[in-house]
Every structure is written in structure tokens, then in C-alpha cells.
Amino acid sequence: MMQSNNKFLNLVNHPFLFRLYLFIKLPAAFFSGIRIRECSNSKCITSVPYKWLTQNPFRSTYFASLAMAAELSTGALALNNTYKRNPEVSMLVTKMEASYFKKATGITFFTCNEGHQIENAVKEARNSGEAKVIIVKSIGKNKSGELIAEFFFTWSFKTKSKKNK
After folding, report:
1. What is the architecture of the domain spanning 6-164?
2. Tens digit of each residue's pLDDT, the chain (165 residues)
3. Which of 66, 92, 127, 147 is deepest in the core (most CB within 10 A)?
4. What is the dihedral of CA 142, 73, 93, 97, to 10 degrees?
5. pTM (two decimals)
6. Are 93 and 71 in contact (CB under 8 A)?
7. Domain boundaries, the chain
8. In sequence order, which ranges of the chain are alpha helices (DSSP H)?
């Protein structure tokens, strides 16, 4: 297993520094109020509120806002395994599937528990020099624990060659 990336975990778990990171790198997530609630090597929990910037005409959270929070729950785990690594590893979402079960009318929490699978995929990509594809799941629930949505993200990881930098 790869060594924990404490620098990245310290960044995402620091409320001010991560909000600054979102403002610079993902302004749509920043203005939507998306937060990382908890992030470790194995699990990431994000949240998205129902508010003016995330609403749809049906008085619930817009599907794209839900998707953004779900993707961040998987993407933070991916970044934890690629952030400032040598050799560099590129990461890209190549597919997304979603199912919606209930209107999101309050805060929605997305949980991805597949950090170790992501870690193994990145390790395989680094060791082989070939692209490694993995499908990871993020589950969205409301404060009452009711299932709101389920997302599957297909991530591709590949070691960057010197000519691609």
C-alpha cells in the first residue's frame, strides 16, 4: 500500500484552506456550498445544501449540484493518492451513472468508502505505466439517513510521461 498523503488530508480537512482551494480550483463547488465533512485514506463524506444556488424549479437540489458533491467524495480520495506524487499520475472521470430515489430538499451527504480500492488502482497504474480504470460508488443520504441518490464514477488513472507534462 502507498504511504498516506498527510499533506493532502491536512488540506481537505482544514476548513479554511480547503475552501480557498475550492475557490481557486472549483469555484462552482465553492459557491454551491459544497463541503468536505470528513476525509481519510479510506472514506470521504461531502455535503451539498439545498439553497438558492443549488435549487431546481421543483423545490429540490438540482441534479448537477448533487453530482458535483458526489464526484468530490470520490475525487478527494483519488487526489489523496495522486497529489504531489512522483511520478505524477493523471486522473480523469470517464463515465458517470446516477440513480435518484427521493427529492433532496435539505442538506445531502455523499459518502464514498472506496479509498483503498482507489489507492490500489493508482498503485497499479504507477507500477505498470498503463492506464487503470476503476468504478467507485458514492451514496447520497439526507439528515434522516434516507437514500437520495447513488452515483457510480468511472475513474481513469495513468502515470504521466515526461512528454505529456
Report:
1. Roll (3.10)
2. 444 568 888 888 888 888 998 999 999 999 999 999 999 999 999 999 999 999 999 999 999 999 999 999 999 999 999 988 888 899 999 999 999 999 999 999 999 999 999 999 999 999 998 999 999 999 999 999 999 999 999 999 999 876 555
3. 66
4. -20
5. 0.91
6. yes
7. 6-164
8. 6-12, 15-25, 27-32, 63-82, 115-128
